[in-house]
Amino acid sequence: MLGNFTYVNATKLYFGDESLQYLNQELPKYGKTVQLIYRGGSIKKNGIYDQVVAILKANGKTIVEDGGVMPNPTVEKLKEGVQIARQNKVDLLLAVGGGSCCDYAKAVSVSVNCEEDPWEKYFIRFEEPSCPIVPVACVLTMVGTGSEMNGGSVITNHEKHLKIGHVFGEEVMPKFSILNPKFTLTLPHKQMVAGIYDIFNHICEQYFSGTDDNTSDYLAEGLMRSVIHSSLIAIKNPQDYEARSNIMWCATWALNTLIAKGKSTDWMVHMLGQAVGAYTDATHGMTLAAVSLPYYRHILPYGLAKFKRFAINVWGIDAEGKTDEQVAQEGLKALENWMKALGVTLHISELGATPEMIPGIAGATIILKGGYKELTHDEVMKILQESL
Ligand code: NZQ
Ligand code: ZN
Fold it and tell me: Disulfide engineering: 220 pairs with which of 11, 84, 207, 379, CB 3.0-4.6 Å?
């Protein structure tokens, strides 16, 4: 039965190849000082930085630079960002980049006016903000996480070997996000496919749970088919605007809370992948790809009906004359073949994980209960060993 829920999405999106111009419409709604959050490499080369700065200046904004946001933002960087925001009394946190910049902006947003240690408050105790937040907005240049239209923020603590996400409420979600598919055309192949797998896995995490008839699962199947279709075009011709824009739109819908409504969700691939990331600092989408197949093979018997449905509705497997188990296995094989075609990483050893790290990674894996099988510690160890 479809569960009870409230649905609101607080983020306004501007989508398309002219969408950056809408910054002019949004900026007057905020105060004078803008903290400009970015990494540094690509946006300075491809001209996005210059375009954003020109619009900020034309709107009379004072720009406070906050560059160097790393792919897995750290606690140390978060504290630095909070200091910058406090010292300059910023009015808006504008992230220009991918999920890392956007996640980091949200973590800064909820920490600027809080005295407590943000790591302890939000990423260990999972408390909600109890202080005024600074609004966040995003100009997206990397597709995958959905951070542009959700409350998620993932921060890494290298000292403690932990990578933990907090999903904040609607007040922390970006007030607006600008999605120009053309901005993603300069992404290196590795980032493009890591992002594509991240999108696909977000959908899987919300799909592989529950036994009821739920509209969210039908939406999920449609999104998965669109991601597969467009990805196969994009890997042949990365400059195909139609494919890249469809991938961008799928990414947003894959994780903007809609397809999780009224149902339980799994998220164990992300828990395993994040623990791998905490030890290796590897690219997020690749950590997911490297643990997915051993995990799904392991839980298949517990969610057989859904894996059969996945095989038929997502991959077009013909079920005629086959057992449910056979059909479900063929679905996973189709997934594996697609992952190989993308060229994503299928082994955590390729990301820097070693056999000696496995007990630590297993210990850092948060075990959730929403999927088809609540894993034991031994099962986590086994899946990680099979992922090596
Ligand atoms: O800009 P440079 O230095 O060249 O490098 C960036 C960045 O290092 C590059 N890049 C971005 N846009 C580009 C580009 N290169 C060329 N052209 C462009 N247009 O790409 C690299 C990766 O960017 P990053 O933001 O790190 O990737 P992603 O968007 O995948 O974000 C990853 C972070 O998001 C978290 C992950 O854990 C990870 O920390 N996640 C956030 C989620 C959320 N908010 O809901 C959910 C996800 O599951 C995920 O956990
Ligand atoms: Zn993800």
Answer: 207
User: For residue 371, which of 208, 255, 230 has the smallest C-alpha distance?
Assistant: 208
In angstroms, the CA 121 to CA 111 distance is: 9
Contact 172, 106 (CB under 8 A): yes
338: Cα separation from own chain's centroid: 20
Decide if 92 contacts 64 (C-beta within 8 A): no
| Span from the CA of 101 to the centroid of ligand 1 (angstroms) | 7
- Kindly give the distance from the C-alpha atom of residue 99 to the centroid of ligand 1, in angstroms, as a whole number: 5
Q: How much is the pLDDT for 41?
A: 86
pLDDT cut 90: percent of the chain above it: 98
191 lines ligand 1 (CB under 6 A): yes
Report how far residue 147's alpha carbon sits from residue 350's, in angstroms, rounded to the nearest whole number: 26
Q: What is the mean pLDDT of the chain?
A: 97
pLDDT of residue 184: 97
Per-residue pLDDT reduced to its tens digit, 306-342 = 999 999 999 999 999 999 999 999 999 999 999 999 9
The pTM is what? Answer: 0.97
**Minimal CA–CA distance to 370: which of 258, 208, 144, 203?**
208
Q: In what order do the strands lie in the sheet with 136-140?
A: 12-15, 176-179, 136-140, 92-97, 33-37, 62-66
Closest residue by Cα to residue 272 from 295, 251, 254, 256: 295
The total of other beta-carbon atoms located within 10 Å of residue 385's CB is: 13
Q: Is 144 in the pocket of ligand 1 (CB under 6 A)?
A: yes
| Atom number of ligand 1 nearest to Cα 153 | 44
Residue 340, classed as helix, strand or coil, is helix
**DSSP sequence for 281-322:** ---HHHHHHHHHHHHHHHHGGGGHHHHHHHHHHTT----TT-
Q: Is the CB–ligand 1 distance for residue 180 below 6 Å?
A: no
CA of 196 from ligand 2 middle (Å) equals 10
User: Tokens standing for 306?
Assistant: 């859904």
pLDDT score for 261? 93
